[in-house]
Design goal:
Length: about 130
């Protein structure tokens, strides 16, 4: 699961981030106070599951089986869906982050401007 939970010692906040690979994403900062002095929590997605039972459906293997991990767009849709479920915990810039990640995925170099697609709630999900 490419989602890690981070803790902010400054404001005692916690938030989740999509992480590709094992290194922290660039520009990682606390969505609440903006501190970059955040650290990855030991617990990961399991914490979300245990705390938020409503996320069980999202983490359900059946649902995950429908996720084409080779398709960045599919992952982005899933991630946005997850972000909605997470609400405040995901942070206000969750969708933006997902868009940015998707843009980087689709366009390796160059300036992948995420805003060009315009706002859309059509996740094509369900
Ligand atoms: Zn903070």
């Amino acid at each position: 699961m490419p989602i890690y939970e981070y803790l902010c010692p400054l404001c005692n906040g916690k938030f989740q981030r999509l992480v590709r690979g094992f290194s922290d994403p660039p520009g990682l900062a606390c969505p609440r106070c903006g501190s970059v002095e955040v650290r990855r929590a030991v617990s990961r997605f399991a914490t979300i599951k245990s705390e938020e039972s409503r996320l069980d459906a999202l983490a359900d293997p059946a649902m995950m089986s429908g996720l084409d991990e080779s398709d960045p767009r599919a992952i982005a849709r899933w991630a946005k869906k997850l972000g909605k479920e997470l609400g405040d915990e995901a942070g206000e810039d969750w969708d933006e982050m997902v868009d940015q990640m998707l843009a980087e995925e689709l366009d390796g170099d160059g300036e992948g401007k995420a805003g060009t697609q315009g706002p859309s709630d059509d996740l094509g999900w369900g």
